[in-house]
Write a structure and sequence with these properties.
The complex is a heterodimer of chains A (336) and B (268). Chain A has 336 residues and is α/β, with parallel strands linked by helices. Chain A has two domains: 177 residues, Rossmann fold (3-Layer(aba) Sandwich), CATH 3.40.50; 122 residues, 3-Layer(aba) Sandwich (Rossmann fold), CATH 3.40.50. Chain A contains eight helices and 18 strands. In chain A, strand 16, helix 7 and strand 17 form a beta-alpha-beta unit. Chain B folds into two domains: 218 residues, Rossmann fold, CATH 3.40.50; 32 residues. The chains are: A alpha/beta (336), B alpha/beta (268).
Chain lengths: 336, 268
């Protein structure tokens, strides 16, 4: 089979179910898709899938040649089978050579199933995307080995399928002079369309770490959930000098149930870039480092002077955090 | 129901706790090697095993752990038997390292076909090495069974699975009929403690070793990952270690230094 790569780029939009807003990931996908379609000299289209998808059609049409709108009551909650069913309808109409999705709980859930159905190699969580001018294949860059290594993958085959890590692209899609066509897609959903049932969405502590000025994070070295009470004292002292100070965590405290997973910083958690990141009792496994390495100033407190976190910190203190924190907090209160 | 037949898919990986300095990249062969440490069971697959053991304890059943790879260490993987799994099946053969996610799923699919009937398949949401996070969902597609991704809590209700699926800012409560596949996240909780005594006792538990021909897979149908380029990013900073006669003094000086650095950062 000769591959032509003659199709266009399709960016799959994401809608937040709670307020029917278009997630910023969507604009990131429009930006990356726009660049790619220019390089490939092809068209760009977008798919909007949701209960009130048409609400966003005009907005998205400013950035693409065609917008496919799939609207249905059954798409009110996120059901991967129904959303995939809707996307497959769009694929039949558009026949794209490149499909871009967000590396979010939705994007991954749909993309991996789609890749299996199409037998199209998928690269998830890409942090870089380039077009090879000769082959017109995608060079897909991602972190592997917990972030210790960066790999570029090139796969034959069509469509070229990737999920992009949120916030790597800035979401600055370029509006065009002419609005794209809006195509309404009918969706028939029968009882066999989904293999599962979404009963309800349960909201938990909503934490935003990505816009914090300061993050005080604890790790395994805290020794137990009470360690976070000590960190809370440091947090409230810092809150006098900064607008937004949050508690964070490496993975072990989450695994051990000491703290909510919404505070996890790292490869499978949040990627943060605060002014100050204070790591207490965190050894510095690579999968944690890649979540905080963009912090401007890193302070590490650890009892093990050989802990890798010190190679990633600007200022360090070796010792028992329980003994160091009280005077640290007191002095900060004086100085801030 | 007379108990659930549970399969856990577990991958052997280089120890993710290894420092970045132990990770070596061979740009020519486009391979990654990790020096000095024993391989481990992928931590998130261990979480999947913990989930399986808790379900078995609550509803009865049998837990089979399945692992595929080129050079599997029975010593490493026997830990699953010590933790409480009933049997371990290894599919081991030449050329099974660095398969692409679809080929890995295909291989697991063929092994599971050979195993016969099952109610539940559990696996980690991604591996600590290549970490593509696709294999579980692809396996479910091949089997034609429902899959719930990123699960942190599981219940069996009237012969169906009810799971808390992690979403942004909370979870979705999702129900699927059995048989089903779930990928679990770290929020589920760590694998229970495994004692040396338990490891010794596990020596008598059954381990089956299969090859590609045992699971009826033609090696030419398996594809490798296509790695074009590999490099190691550097994340180093020059760290000033604050010292003092007492921890209290260290704490005070640390605060002074932090504020100082902050001022120069803000350009004051």
């Amino acid at each position: 089979m000769v591959l032509t790569m003659s199709g266009g780029v399709l960016s799959v939009m994401e809608i937040n179910e709670e307020d029917n807003s278009l997630d910023n990931t969507s604009f990131e996908l429009l930006e990356a898709g726009g660049v790619l379609s220019k390089e490939a000299g092809t068209t760009i289209s977008a798919a909007i899938i949701g209960r009130k998808a048409s609400h966003h059609a005009d907005n998205v049409a400013r950035y693409v040649d065609r917008v496919y709108v799939v609207e249905h009551e059954a798409l009110a909650s996120f059901n991967p089978y129904l959303h995939l069913h809707a996307l497959e309808k769009v694929l039949k109409l558009e026949g794209p050579s490149y499909i871009l999705m967000g590396h979010t709980y939705k994007g991954v859930d749909i993309a991996a199933r789609l890749a299996a159905r199409l037998k199209a190699p998928l690269t998830t969580d890409c942090i870089g995307l380039e077009l090879d001018p000769q082959t017109r294949l995608l060079k897909r860059r991602r972190q592997v080995y917990g972030g210790a290594v960066i790999a570029t993958f090139i796969y034959q085959g069509e469509p070229q399928l990737v999920t992009l890590r949120p916030k790597v692209w800035r979401g600055r899609a370029e509006p065009r002079q002419v609005m794209g066509d809006i195509i309404q897609v009918d969706l028939d959903i029968n009882s066999s369309a989904s293999k599962l049932r979404v009963i309800e969405r349960v909201k938990e502590e909503a934490v935003r770490l990505d816009d914090a000025d300061v993050i005080v994070s604890g790790g395994r070295g805290l020794g137990g959930p009470d360690g976070f009470k000590e960190l809370e004292k440091l947090r409230s002292a810092l809150a006098k000098g900064f607008k937004k100070v949050e508690i964070g965590s490496s993975r072990p405290p989450v695994d051990k149930g000491w703290i909510s997973s919404s505070r996890q910083v790292g490869l499978t958690g949040e990627k943060v870039s605060p002014m100050i990141y204070i790591a207490v009792g965190i050894s510095g496994a690579t999968q944690h480092i890649v979540g905080m390495e963009k912090s401007k100033l890193v302070v590490a407190i650890n009892s093990d002077k050989g802990a890798p976190i010190f190679t990633m910190a600007d200022i360090g203190a070796v010792g028992d955090y329980r003994q160091i924190l009280p005077s640290f907090i007191k002095k900060l209160e004086e100085l801030l | 129901m007379t108990g659930l037949r549970i399969i856990v898919c577990a991958k052997q990986v280089p120890d993710p706790e290894a420092p970045a300095s132990a990770v070596d990249v061979d740009p020519e062969k486009r391979r990654v090697t990790v020096k000095g440490l024993m391989p481990v069971i992928n931590p998130l697959d261990e979480v999947a095993l913990e989930a399986a053991l808790q379900i078995k304890e609550k509803y009865g059943g049998k837990v089979t752990v399945l692992s595929v790879g080129e050079r599997l260490s029975e010593n490493v993987l026997r830990k699953v038997l010590a933790a409480g799994a009933d049997e371990l099946i290894l599919v081991q053969d030449e050329g099974l390292d660095d398969l692409d996610p679809y080929s890995t799923a295909l291989l697991l699919f063929k092994a599971i076909e050979k195993l016969g009937t099952f109610d539940l398949i559990l696996t980690g949401r991604e591996s600590a090495d290549w970490g593509s996070g696709q294999v579980g969902l692809m396996l479910a597609e091949l089997l034609g069974i429902p899959a719930i991704n990123w699960v942190k809590r599981i219940e069996v209700v009237n012969g169906a699975i009810r799971a808390a699926k992690v979403v942004h800012g909370g979870y979705d409560l999702v129900e699927a009929p059995l048989p089903a596949l779930l990928t679990v996240t770290n929020e589920f909780g760590e694998l229970r403690y495994v004692s040396i005594m338990a490891l010794k006792r596990a020596r008598d538990k059954p381990v089956d070793a299969w090859t590609l021909s045992d699971v009826d897979v033609d090696p030419s149908t398996l594809r490798k990952m296509e790695v074009a380029e590999l490099f190691k990013p550097r994340f180093e900073r020059m760290c000033t270690i604050i010292t003092g006669k007492t921890p209290e003094e260290v704490g005070e000086r640390l605060a002074v230094k932090l504020v100082e650095e902050l001022h120069s950062l803000r350009g004051r």
